[in-house]
Amino acid sequence: MENSKILSHVDHTLLKAVSSWDEICTLCEESIKFKTASVCVPPSYIKRIADNFSGINICTVIGFPLGYNISSVKTAEAEAAVNDGANEIDMVINIGDVKNGDFNKVTGEIAAIKKAVGNHILKVIIEACYLTEEEKVSLCGCVTEAGADYIKTSTGFGTAGAVMEDIILFKKHIGPQVKIKAAGGIRTRQDMVDFLSAGCDRLGTSSAIKILSGEETSGY
User: Fold this and answer.
1) Helix, strand, or coil (residue 215)
2) pLDDT band at 214, cuts 50/70/90?
3) Which of 11, 90, 149, 191 is catalytic?
4) Residue from 145, 147, 150, 158 nearest 95 by CA
5) Region class of 63: left (phi > 0), else alpha (psi between -120 and 50), else beta
6) Is 54 strand, coil or helix?
7) Is 211 helix (H, G, I), strand (E, B) or coil?
8) Which of 74, 123, 136, 181 is catalytic?
């Protein structure tokens, strides 16, 4: 698999709390140069990116990284992100609702945010490292029923990132219109090739360009 093909599936990511504007600019310049699928950035930088860079696909995160914001706050945050210039939204589910078995509430929240963002892409982060297999299967149903575009493995801030077993499980249980994004812990070129070959459409990582340039990395 050619590096250019791999990079076309990468959401080039910088979500650390200490991320500076200079670092965000470098991220955007790299995304344009290497033609990544998007840049994935904190919501506070969306408008500034939109005002300073053209031809860049902006992705951002909502309810990040813990997901326990109330639904109305997440919806307002998603609407504001789109208005500022984001094209793709990666939302974190309320894992507490999952642990309480309230999957109808999870579905409702996803559906509300999808309605708020309209034709813009919605990816749903389920933070798989905290879930049982049964919960993961149920969430495949929630994501599908709510009309989201992607199911995403991880925030990259949990106890573990993407694992192949979850990708295989998702493929069995998501609807045909739902795509898969693997994120967190992607640290080698082989990781990227393996996840794409297994059926992932997107990869979330801050390290892809460094990895494919042969540099050492231990990033998101």
Assistant:
1) coil
2) confident
3) 90
4) 158
5) left
6) coil
7) helix
8) 181
Structure confidence by residue, pLDDT tens digits, 121-144: 999 999 999 999 999 999 999 999
Catalytic option among 136, 149, 152, 191: 152
Say which amino acid occupies 139.
Answer: L
Cα 77 from chain centroid?
Answer: 16
Proportion of the chain in helix, strand, coil states, percent, rounded to 5:
45, 15, 35
**Cα 64 from Cα 93, distance rounded (Å):** 9
Class of domain 3-212: alpha beta
Residue ranges covered by each domain of the chain: 3-212
**For 70-99, what is each residue's pLDDT tens digit?**
999 999 999 999 999 999 999 999 999 999
Instruction: Assess whether pLDDT exceeds 60 at residue 5.
Output: yes
Indicate if the alpha-carbon torsion angle 67, 71, 76, 80 is positive or negative: positive
Does 90 participate in catalysis according to the annotation? yes
Please report which confidence band the pLDDT of residue 218 belongs to, taking 50, 70 and 90 as the band edges. very low
> Is the pLDDT assigned to residue 68 strictly greater than 70?
yes
Q: Is 102 a catalytic site residue? A: no
Cβ-proximal residues to 172 (8 Å cutoff; 6+ apart), any chain: none
51 tagged catalytic = no
